[in-house]
Amino acid sequence: MDNFFKDTPDFKFHLEHPIMKKIVALKERNFSESEKYDYAPINHEDAIDTYEKILEIVGEICADTISKNAEGVDVEGPHIENNKVVYAKGTTADYKALYEAGLIGMSLPRKYEGLNFPLLPYVMAAEMVARADAGFANIWGLQDCAETIYEFGSEEQREKYLPRFNRDGATAAMVLTEPDAGSDLQSVKLKATFNEEDKKWYLNGVKRFITNGDADISLVLARSEEGTTDARGLSMFIYDRNDHAVQVRHLEKKLGIKGSPTCELVFKNAPAELVGKERFGLIKYVMALMNSARLGVGAQSVGIADAAYREALKYAEERAQFGKVIINFPAVYEMITNMKVRIDALRSLLYETTRFVDVTKVYEDVMQERPLEKEERMEMKGYAKLANVFTPLLKLMASEACNVIAYDSLQIHGGTGFMKDFPIERIYRDARITSIYEGTTQLQAVAAIKGVTTGVFLEQIKNYEAKVFEENVTLKTKLQEMTVSFEEITQQVIDTHHTELLDFHSRRLVEMAGNIIMGYLLLLNSQRDEKFNKSAKLFINLVSSENKEKFDYINNFNIENLDLYKLVPTELLEPQV
Predict the structure, then answer these.
(1) Using CA atoms, how far apart are residues 564 and 504, in angstroms rounded to an integer?
(2) 44 CB-side CA count, 13 A
(3) What is the pLDDT of residues 182-213, one digit of tens each?
(4) CA–CA dist 86, 82 (Å, integer)
(5) What is the C-alpha to C-alpha distance for residues 45 and 51, in angstroms, rounded to an integer?
(6) Where is the signal peptide (predicted)?
(7) What mean pLDDT comes out for the span 406-411?
C-alpha cells in the first residue's frame, strides 16, 4: 500500500500556506531553540522539511501497520482482564510503532520531550491515522490531554506528567460523561473531596462512555463544590492509573470504532490532583479540551471520508456490469466525483480552522514568556474569534459529510459492501459516531450559529471574496449571489426576534455559511494550484443548489408551523378503530 503522506499531495499544499511562516516562527521562538536542541530547526524551510519527514514516517506506519491491522482489531476488540483493559493485538502493535517512532506528544515543547510541532502537522497525522483505522485514531489522538495539562497545569504537573507521553508512551483519556450527564456536562455529579489531613483530593462516583477510559493519565471532571448543581461547582483533576483506585466495570459493545475501548468507570476514593483553579473545570478547561477534541473529530471525519472514497474508486474501477466497469456509468462517476470534491472542500476547511487555532495557541504560549504587543493581542483576539466558530462548523460539516460519503461508498459496492468481505463495511460503521461524540451535530449548530448571528462568518466570507483574482469572476459571482441570499435569509430570521425559530433553522443557516466558506477556500486554493480548479467549479455548482433549497425552505416556513413539530399528538399514536 502507498505511503499515506505521499499519496495525498494536499498535505504539502496546506503546509505551504503563507500564514505558516508566522505560526512556525512563533512556535519556534524565531528558531532560538536550535542552539539548545540539535533536532530543532534553524529556519522556516528546515522546520517544514522536518514536518514533512515526520509525516512521511506517519504515512508509512499508517500504510504498513495500522491499516493492515484494522480488520483484525475490529474483530478482536479490547477486553477486561484483572480490572485492566487489554487492547487487541493489532492496537498494541499500532501504538508501539508510533511510540517507537517518537510520535506520542508531537505538539508538546521539547522541554517535556515533545517535538514542539504546531497543530497543523499534528492534525495531518491525525487525519492519516483515522484513514488507516478510525478506532485507533481515538487512542492516539487523546494525547490532546497532554496539551491541556501543559496549558492549564502547574509547572510541577507538567514536569511530572508530560515527559511520560514521549518517554514512556503514556496513554490518556478525558473522563467527562456520566450516566445522567451526557451532553449536559454541568449536571456532572462525580464528587471531589479535599482531605485536610493529607491535603489531597479524592474522587468518588461513576463515569460512562469514556473513550480509552483505562488510560495511564486521565483528566476527570468532578464536582468539587458541595451544594452546587451547575457548572460553577465543577473542577478538573488528573488521575494517575498507577494509583489503582478505579474499577473498570464494563466495556461497551458498539456499532463501530471497536478497537477503541469505551469504558464505564467507578472511582473509589481515587487520589487526584487539581488542575488550575477550582470551579473552572467546565467553563474554561473542559471547553478548551472539547474544542481540541472537535478539531480531532474533524480530522477523523476527513480521514474516514478519504478511506471511503478510495474504496469506492478502487471497487468501481474493477467491478464490471453490463459489459463495462461501473465507473463508466454516469450514476456512479457522479457519486465518486462528488466524494472527491467534498473531501477537497472539507480538507480545506479542516486546515483553515487548524491555522486559526494554531495562531491563537502560539500567541497564548508566547504570553507565558512575555507580554504581547498591542498588535499581537489584537491579532490573537481576531483568530480566537474565528477559531471559536469555525471549530463547531468544521465538526458539523465534516462529520455529516463523512457519513454521506461512507454511505455512498457502500452503495457503490452494492451487496458486497454489506458483507464483511470489503473494508467499507467497517468504515461505514466507524463513520456513524463522528456526528455524535464530542458534541452532536445538533449541539454544533447551536455553537456555530453565533458565527451567523454575530456576523463573524459573513465578515470572513467578505475577506475571502477580496482575495479572489479577476479571472475567477464567474465563480466569484456565483458565490456572491449565494452570500446575498445568505445575508437576506439570516436577517429575515433574526428580525422575527423569535429565539425558537432561530434555533429551528440554525443548522440550515450554519450549513449555508459553511458551503460558501468552503467554496471560497477551494477557489483561493485554485489560485495557488490549478489542480483545485475542477473541485472549485464542481463544488460551487453543487452547493449553490443546496443553499437555494435551504433558502426556499426557510423563506416559505410559517412560524405557526413550529407548534406542529413540538409533540406528536397522542391520537396519532393510538390504534384507529
Answers:
(1) 13
(2) 12
(3) 778 888 999 999 999 999 999 999 999 999 99
(4) 10
(5) 10
(6) none
(7) 98
Cell numbers for 277: 483553579
C-alpha span between 155 and 460 (Å, rounded): 38
- Average pLDDT of span 168-185: 90
The residues carrying an active-site annotation are 438
The alpha-helical segments, DSSP class H, found in 269-329 are 287-318
Alpha-carbon separation of residue 351 from 88, 111, 135, 566 (angstroms): 32, 27, 22, 38
Smallest CA-to-CA distance from 309 within 291, 332, 330, 283 is with 332
Report the phi/psi class of residue 29: left, alpha or beta, with left for phi > 0 and alpha for psi in -120 to 50.
left
Q: How confident is the model over 398-423, as a mean pLDDT?
A: 97
Question: Strands (DSSP E) along 77-132, which ranges?
Answer: 79-80, 85-86
Q: What is the pLDDT of residues 317-352, one digit of tens each?
A: 999 999 999 999 999 999 999 999 999 999 999 999
Please state the φ and ψ torsions of residue 516, each to the nearest 5 degrees: -65, -45
Report angle CA 215, 216, 218 to the nearest 5 degrees.
70
Question: Helices 499-528 and 456-465: crossing angle, nearest 10°?
Answer: 20
User: If phi over 0 gives left and psi between -120 and 50 gives alpha, with beta otherwise, what is residue 284?
Assistant: alpha
Q: What's the whole-number mean pLDDT along residues 302-314?
A: 98
Q: How far apart are CA 330 and CA 334, in angstroms?
A: 6
Torsion of CA 354, 359, 361, 363, to 10 degrees: 180
CA distance 262 to 255: 12
Q: Which three-class secondary structure state does DSSP give residue 324?
A: strand
pLDDT digits (tens, 9 = 90+) for 123-168: 999 999 999 999 999 999 999 999 999 999 999 999 999 999 999 9
How far is it, in rounded angstroms, from Cα 551 to Cα 565?
20
Give yes or no for residue 222 having a pLDDT over 90.
Answer: yes
Number of neighbours of residue 252 by Cβ within 10 angstroms: 14
- Terminal-residue alpha carbon distance, the chain: 63
pLDDT in tens, 71-98: 999 999 999 999 999 999 999 999 999 9
Scanning the structure block, which residue is given the C-alpha cell 517535538?
115
For every residue of 20-44, DSSP letters joined together read HHHHHHHHTTTTGGGGT-TTS-SSH
Give, to the nearest 10 degrees, the angle between helix 20-27 and helix 44-61. Answer: 90
- Could you give the CA distance from residue 226 to residue 247 in angstroms, rounded to a whole number? 24
In which residue are the cell numbers 508538546 written? 108
Residues 8, 556: Cα–Cα separation, whole Å: 43
* Residue-by-residue DSSP string for 58-110: HHHHIIIIIHHHHHHHHHH--EESSSSEE--HHHHHHHHHHHHTT-SSTTS-G
| pLDDT score of 573 | 63
Written as one string, the DSSP assignment of 459-491 is HHHHHHHTT--GGGHHHHHHHHHHHHHHHHHHH
Contact 161, 275 (CB under 8 A): no
Q: Which of 573, 567, 553 is nearest to 501 (CA)?
A: 553
